C-alpha cells in the first residue's frame, strides 16, 4: 500500500493531480473557518460549545455535518455542499416527471450540460433560501439558544432600516460561498482525482471526526470509547463488503457482419449492485424527518401548542423514540425502491441490448429480458434497502444506549459517504497506476 502511494507521487501526471486536489481541499477547509462579515464569531463559538447536546442547533445538524461544522460558525462556506446535493436530487426526480428534462437527458453530453446548468441555478436559489432562513433564526436567538449572531456594535441597528444591508451582505457572502464550492468541485473533477463534489463532502465529514472522538473520550469511560471504536471498525468493514457486492448479469453479443468486418461475438455483464441507490435514500429520509424539528424551532420549543409537544415527543432526532426510528427506517426502505425505480429502467436496458444484438443466456430478448432484469433488481433492492435502514439506525441505537449519541457526529449517512467516496477515489488512483506500472494498490 505504501509502495503504491510512493509510485503515485513518482508519476508526474498523477502527482500533479493529487497535489492539485489537496490544494483545493485545503482552501475549501480554510473557507469553512472564516466567519462571514458582521458575525460575532466569539460569542457564537462559546454558545455552541455550551449547548452542543441540546437546543435549536440540532435543527440543521445534517447541514452542519455536511459543512464540517461551518454552519454553526456562520462561516463563508457555512452552507457547505448541501444546496448542491438538494438541487441534484430535485433535478433527478424532475427528469422522470418533466418531459423536457427527460428529452435533455437522452440527448447525451449536450443535454447533460444543460441539466448541469439548471442544477447550478437551482443551487444558487436554494442557497439564498437556506442562508436567509438560517440568518433569520440566528438574529432572533433561536439558533444559538438566546445568543444573537451580531457583534455588540451592531446591536443598536437591530430592527431598524440599517439592519437590512447587514442581512443582505451576510446572505450574499454565504450564497457566493456556495457558488465557489460548486466551482471547486468541478475543478477537482476536471483536473484532480476523484469526483469533486463527493470529495468535498468526504472532507467536511472527516473534518468533524477528531473533535467527535475527543468528546466521546472525555465524557465516557475508557471501555465505552474502546467499544465504540471496535464497533465502528466492524461497521465500516461491513459497509465496505456490501458496497462492493454486486450481481453480474451475463450478456452475450451475437456476431454480425458490417461491410467486410465482423463485429460482436463478445461476452460481458451488467453489474447490479446490492446497494444500487447509494446514500441518497438516507439523505432523503433524514432531510424529511428534520422538517418537524424545524417547525418546533420556528414555533418555539417552549410553546404550549399540542403540535409542538407531539413533535418534541415522537419526532425529536435526539430522543431516539421508537416512532421516530420506525418512521426513519420505513422512509429509507421506501425511498430506496423509489430511487432505484427512477434511475434504472429495465425496459430501456433490454431495448438497448436488443438493438445491438445482445442477449442474456436462456432469456429471450425484448420483454422477457426486461421482466428478468426487473425481477433480479427487486430481489437485490430488498436486502439493499434493509441494509441501508439498519446501517442508518445502528449508530443511533448503539450510541444512544451509551449516552454518546448527542456528541457523536457520525451516523449511517457519514459512514456510507466516507466508505463510498474512499473506495471510488482509491479505484481511480489505482487505474492511473495500472495504466503506467501495471500494478495498483492490491498485488
From TrEMBL:
Membrane topology of this protein: Multi-pass membrane protein
Membrane-spanning residues: 70-97, 118-138, 164-185, 197-217, 223-242, 279-301, 321-344, 385-402, 408-426
Subcellular location, record wording: Cell membrane; Membrane
Tagged with keyword Transmembrane: yes
Pfam family, one: SecY
Keyword annotations of the record: Cell membrane, Membrane, Protein transport, Translocation, Transmembrane, Transmembrane helix, Transport
Gene Ontology terms: cellular component: plasma membrane
This protein's record includes keyword Repeat: no
GO biological process: intracellular protein transmembrane transport; protein targeting; protein transport by the Sec complex
Family in the record: Belongs to the SecY/SEC61-alpha family.
UniProt cross-references to HAMAP family, sorted A to Z: SecY
Stated role: The central subunit of the protein translocation channel SecYEG. Consists of two halves formed by TMs 1-5 and 6-10. These two domains form a lateral gate at the front which open onto the bilayer between TMs 2 and 7, and are clamped together by SecE at the back. The channel is closed by both a pore ring composed of hydrophobic SecY resides and a short helix (helix 2A) on the extracellular side of the membrane which forms a plug. The plug probably moves laterally to allow the channel to open. The ring and the pore may move independently.
Subunit structure: Component of the Sec protein translocase complex. Heterotrimer consisting of SecY, SecE and SecG subunits. The heterotrimers can form oligomers, although 1 heterotrimer is thought to be able to translocate proteins. Interacts with the ribosome. Interacts with SecDF, and other proteins may be involved. Interacts with SecA.
Protein name per Swiss-Prot or TrEMBL: Protein translocase subunit SecY
Amino acid at each position: 500500500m505504501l509502495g503504491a502511494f510512493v509510485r503515485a507521487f513518482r508519476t508526474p501526471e498523477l502527482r500533479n493531480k493529487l497535489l492539485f486536489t489537496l490544494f483545493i481541499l485545503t482552501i475549501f477547509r480554510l473557507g469553512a473557518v472564516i466567519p462571514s462579515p458582521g458575525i460575532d464569531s466569539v460569542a457564537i463559538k462559546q454558545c455552541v460549545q455550551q449547548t452542543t447536546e441540546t437546543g435549536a442547533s440540532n435543527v440543521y445538524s445534517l447541514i452542519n455535518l455536511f459543512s464540517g461544522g461551518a454552519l454553526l460558525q456562520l462561516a463563508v462556506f457555512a452552507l457547505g455542499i448541501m444546496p448542491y446535493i438538494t438541487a441534484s436530487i430535485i433535478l433527478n426526480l424532475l427528469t422522470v416527471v418533466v418531459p423536457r428534462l427527460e428529452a435533455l437527458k437522452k440527448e447525451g453530453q449536450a443535454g447533460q450540460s444543460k441539466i448541469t446548468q439548471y442544477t447550478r441555478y437551482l443551487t444558487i436559489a436554494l442557497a439564498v433560501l437556506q442562508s436567509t432562513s438560517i440568518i433569520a433564526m440566528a438574529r432572533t436567538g433561536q439558533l444559538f439558544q438566546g445568543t444573537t449572531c451580531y457583534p455588540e456594535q451592531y446591536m443598536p441597528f437591530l430592527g431598524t432600516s440599517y439592519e437590512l444591508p447587514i442581512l443582505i451582505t451576510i446572505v450574499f457572502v454565504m450564497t457566493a460561498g456556495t457558488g465557489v464550492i460548486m466551482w471547486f468541485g468541478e475543478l477537482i473533477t476536471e483536473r484532480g482525482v476523484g469526483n469533486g463534489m463527493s470529495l468535498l463532502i468526504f472532507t467536511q465529514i472527516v473534518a468533524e471526526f477528531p473533535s467527535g472522538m475527543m468528546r466521546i473520550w472525555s465524557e465516557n469511560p475508557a471501555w465505552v470509547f474502546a467499544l465504540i471504536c471496535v464497533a465502528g471498525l466492524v461497521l465500516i468493514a461491513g459497509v465496505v463488503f456490501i458496497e462492493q457486492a454486486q450481481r453480474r448479469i451475463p450478456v452475450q453479443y451475437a456476431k454480425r457482419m458490417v461491410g467486410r468486418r465482423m463485429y460482436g461475438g463478445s461476452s460481458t455483464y451488467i453489474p447490479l449492485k446490492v446497494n444500487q441507490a447509494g446514500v441518497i435514500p438516507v439523505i432523503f429520509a433524514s432531510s424529511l424527518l428534520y422538517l418537524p424539528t424545524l417547525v418546533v424551532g420556528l414555533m418555539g420549543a417552549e410553546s404550549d401548542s399540542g403540535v409542538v409537544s407531539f413533535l418534541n415527543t415522537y419526532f425529536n432526532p435526539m430522543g431516539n423514540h421508537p416512532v421516530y426510528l420506525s418512521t426513519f427506517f420505513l422512509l429509507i426502505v421506501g425511498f430506496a425502491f423509489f430511487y432505484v425505480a427512477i434511475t434504472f429502467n429495465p425496459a430501456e436496458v433490454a431495448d438497448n441490448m436488443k438493438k445491438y444484438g445482445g442477449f442474456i443466456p436462456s432469456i429471450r430478448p425484448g420483454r422477457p429480458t426486461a421482466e428478468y432484469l426487473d425481477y433480479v433488481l427487486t430481489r437485490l433492492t430488498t436486502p439493499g434497502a434493509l441494509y441501508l435502514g439498519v446501517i442508518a439506525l445502528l449508530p443511533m441505537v448503539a450510541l444512544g444506549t451509551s449516552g454518546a449519541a448527542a456528541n457523536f457526529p457520525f451516523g449511517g449517512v457519514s459512514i456510507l459517504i466516507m466508505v463510498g467516496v474512499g473506495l471510488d477515489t482509491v479505484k481511480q488512483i489505482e487505474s492511473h497506476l495500472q495504466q503506467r506500472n501495471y500494478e495498483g494498490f492490491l498485488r
